[in-house]
Design goal:
Layout: H1 10-19, E1 24-28, E2 36-39, E3 46-47, E4 58-62, E5 71-75, E6 78-81, E7 86-89, H2 95-105, H3 127-139, E8 145-155, H4 162-172, E9 177-183, E10 187-193, E11 196-200, E12 205-216, H5 228-247, E13 254-263, E14 266-276, H6 277-280, H7 285-293, E15 301-302, H8 304-314, E16 325-329, E17 335-339, E18 343-346, E19 350-359, H9 365-380
Antiparallel strand pairs: 1-2, 1-9, 2-6, 3-5, 4-5, 4-16, 6-7, 8-15, 8-19, 9-10, 10-18, 11-12, 11-17, 12-14, 13-14, 16-17, 18-19
Bound molecules: the ligand C=C(O[C@@H]1C=C(C(=O)O)C=C[C@H]1O)C(=O)O.
The ligand C=C(O[C@@H]1C=C(C(=O)O)C=C[C@H]1O)C(=O)O binds near residues 147, 211, 214, 299 and 375.
Pfam families: Chorismate_bind (PF00425)
Protein name: Isochorismate synthase
Amino acid sequence: MGTQAPTYTLAEVFNTAVVANRAIAAWRLPHAASVQVCISLQDDLFIGQPVLENSAAGFLFCPFQVGKYKNSFIKADLEFDPLTGIVFSAPDAPVAGLKEFYTLLAEPTNNSWHLPESIAQLTSENYTAVVQQSIAAIEAGEMEKVVISRNQKQQLPENFSPVATFNKLLESYPEAFVSLVSVPGIGTWLGATPEILVSIDADQVFHTMALAGTQPATEKVNDAIWRQKEIEEQGMVERYILSCFKKLRLREYTEIGPRTIKAGNLLHLRTDFKVDLKEVDYPALGSEMLQLLHPTSAICGLPKEPALQFILAREGYDRSYYSGYFGPVNCAAGTSLFVNLRCMQLLSHEAILYAGAGITSESDPEKEWHETQHKMNTIGSVLNG
Ligand SMILES: C=C(O[C@@H]1C=C(C(=O)O)C=C[C@H]1O)C(=O)O
């Protein structure tokens, strides 16, 4: 008679990872039924530019701008299946780390999460003034589009639980990539993003998307009417993706869209680009496109360099991991990297919510401010009971 493996809850596993000072990621892919969880037992989590093709299985967590913040990789030394409650270890997982983790897992835990080492900066109240300056810079021909973002604190409710909030996000946003990531020294981020940056599925199909243009969700998605401003704004993201393909001399791709999609309380315009990696015989396309794409015109601007410099000089705060990219690498379903949007960072008693909006010469500063408020509500509403 075999002994049965002990079972745990996601909250027990999450809290143990924090007590053990380990990095943990829990996520659910869009429209997927199951939640996946991985924990790294490595002492060094930091990596340079990610190489996706030969990577171990794990979860990438990368900032908007590499420099002050690092690219981290949460290697799947441990995996957890919340449905069965069973924890699995990888054959190459460090033995001492495993022993310590299982010892701590047997003990009772409380709600806790990793906090950031550096204090998160907040934007001042001059969002509309920065948008006004952006419009002036665009009219002066410095760039065509720039994405200006802001952040805002919101009190955490009494007895806040990251895992219970993650579960609420799963329920509220079945069409999103829902995630809870907690890394020592970096902190804890929760979100429900609609935007793929790079994915490569189990059939070796590469996928990226141009997602931009925003309006509040209407009853019928297909009845949405888009203004010229949003059509052009999304077109710029498409053009940017096509310019990346062109740099790699890749001509064999399929393009579908733009179509209207619903993301929580909002609608966006989306064009999907797919490449069959078996047909084009380009196994490193994922890593090479990742390097070229980030930061795309959906979260930075066009052309990239002047827009990035404008953001760094004028936005007035540090985005850290907001509008960075993250997701599973070489897991059962392949690699799926998303843009870290509709997200919040957890402090001890507060969450910081982040959102941005694409600014073009047609922008109205007040409307853009409301758009960022709608985007923050996607995630902020789950804190309100
Ligand atoms: C920048 C954000 O979203 C991005 C910007 C959009 C826009 O400007 O319309 C739409 C979708 C995203 O690509 C955000 O959610 O913070």
